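Researcher: Please generate the 3D structure of the following complex. Treat every line as part of one assembly.
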Amino acid sequence: MGEYVLETVPAYNSLTVFFDTGKIKYSSVVTDLKEIYATKDQKLLTANRIWKIPVCYDKEFGLDLGNLAKIKKLTREKIISLHTGPLYDMYFIGFLPGFLYLGGLPKVLEQPRKDKPRLKINKGDVAIAGNQTGIYPRTSPGGWNIIGNSPLSFFNVDEFPPCFAVSGDKVKFIQVDKIKHEEIKKQVEAGDYQIESEIHG
Amino acid sequence: MDNNILILSEGLHTSIQDLGRKGYRSYGVPISGAMDKYSAILANKLLNNDEKLPVMEMTLMGPKILFEDHSLIVITGADMSPELNGEPMKMNFVYEVKTSDVLSFGTLKTGARSYLGVKGGFQTENKLKSFSYYDGITSKEKVQKGDRLRIASFDADLQVSSSKIKVKSAHFNEKELEVTKGPEFNRLTKKHRELLFSKEFKIDPHHNRMGYQLKNKFPPIKNDGIITSTTIPGTVQLTPSGKLIIMMRDCPTTGGYPRILQLTDIAINQLAQKKENDVLKFDLESSFDFLGRLVSRFKD
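Model: Done. Output below.
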């Protein structure tokens, strides 16, 4: 298929295949895809990393953390321990360059989008909307509930690939304090921060 | 030596665009590229350029530009009454410009987006294999006053072509946009479909390179959320509040609203030449669905 596939876009339960209509007709692509699908029991595992993402849940960053704790009748500490608990599945990147769609948010942390979206959500803000949690790769408007901030860069236009994680990887949030957050941020800006990761089985 | 142009005033939304940034959608990077590809390609063809070379896209109100060197230029797309040193210019016609010449624009007569092509193309930053401006990918999101943009050096031996192309007026005033069925088309009721293909829709003030929102309220559909999936330029989404949004070249790579229709590439170019309060209809007749299969209007 390599000779006619231009690019593919994975999402939760779909894979969009863009192909060169000048090279092949639609029905032949379908035949090829069906053939691949028939061999789906042959697992091709290319993604197997657990990325450790430092997040500071300090009041300064977690603008909605206090409110979320109030709604859920939990302490801030409990919310943080629930959020840092799971190994999140990295399904795909979409919406904005470098925005990771993560699955596996504990049910008790599920919270609808805010009624009034914020005009500005900062780069690195870690947020919750519905049953999803994610990290804003750059400053943008948005309606998600902000609970912390990560000092990492999730999209680097001058590197290839521009994102470190790929679909199928896993993500673990690691709580850091404000001092550590600042320290990592400086290292990231200087280009000498190595994101921690390990192989998972 | 570098050849440059200097931006004296920036216009409403001016940017450098080529035919788009392909191959990075799985990283969440939009395709981008000229909103009206037809006019962008035409500008390059008239200059005997490769059609993929970057051009300047100007929206509703044009910039004022000082040429610091010689070049050949052409203006295509929307007629924004271009003038060279105060003299009216013809559309789709190649002009030779010299050092200190000033290009300016006046009243918008037709369309919404105008394209400035230069011989050899603009030589601005190339990021992820494209020159198209996009916030966070290129260092600039739009051309601003005081910017000095590099253009290809001018070869004095080049002949100015005298051919003038007449662009069909339908490109600017075609009301019926050709569409195919979107992946969630079958969620629409018969009533929805009748409304969708009989009504005239008006363009909302919220229209930009990312998308065009339509003014009319449309009845929302039940179970209207979809699991987030791919959106592409031309995808028509129906929001829970009953708004229709047509995705354009800078649209996000994925979205969570039902994708009820898909504009053909010609229709995207035509929409790119429309502005607030312009009217459009969706035309599905004798058309293909989003997978290229021939369909009839009210059949699933």
